[in-house]
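Box 3.1 A note on notation
Throughout this textbook, protein chains are presented in two layers. The first layer is the amino acid sequence; the second is a token string describing backbone geometry. Keep the layers aligned when reading.
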Amino acid sequence: MCDHERGAVIWITGLPSSGKTTLARKLEHEFREMGRKVEVLDGDEVRRWLSPEAGFTREDRERHLRRVAYVSRLLARNGVIVIAAFVSPYRKIRREIRGIVEEDVPFMEVYVKCPLEVAMNRDPKGLYKRALRGEISNFTGIDDPFEEPESPEVVVDSSRMSPEEEADIVLKAFREVMDDC
């Protein structure tokens, strides 16, 4: 049985504009309501501070995500629930991330499933349109692949579920992961 004040990492992956950040913020609110220490690490914000030199090649993405995984592990082993919301498009790097984190703390992968067409319609920053016009290269879902997770602990479908429903499913699975560790 885990110490319920122990930290953990909830890694949220999915296409750009799939709803990762929305889910992360909803989970953050729920954990704070429970009195838990929680930190959201979100793709755009963290990249600016942790890997400002990084581009969007596969190598740059993987290097950046390894850094994020290590920082997540450090925070979690100090009692913080880390909610990391990153596209993290490749299976290989997600396996590496899991390995880095699980050395010290529980890890849970959450896949925010969302059809490409829905993500493209949401696109608050207009990035898909820019990628389709050739203004952005290596854009996940357009000219760079998103490899669906093979066995995430949780799958939610943001095109069919509300953020509240998604968060309920993730929290239930989180409790099970923490009880089993």
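The chain has one domain: 8-174. The two ends are 6 Å apart (CA to CA).
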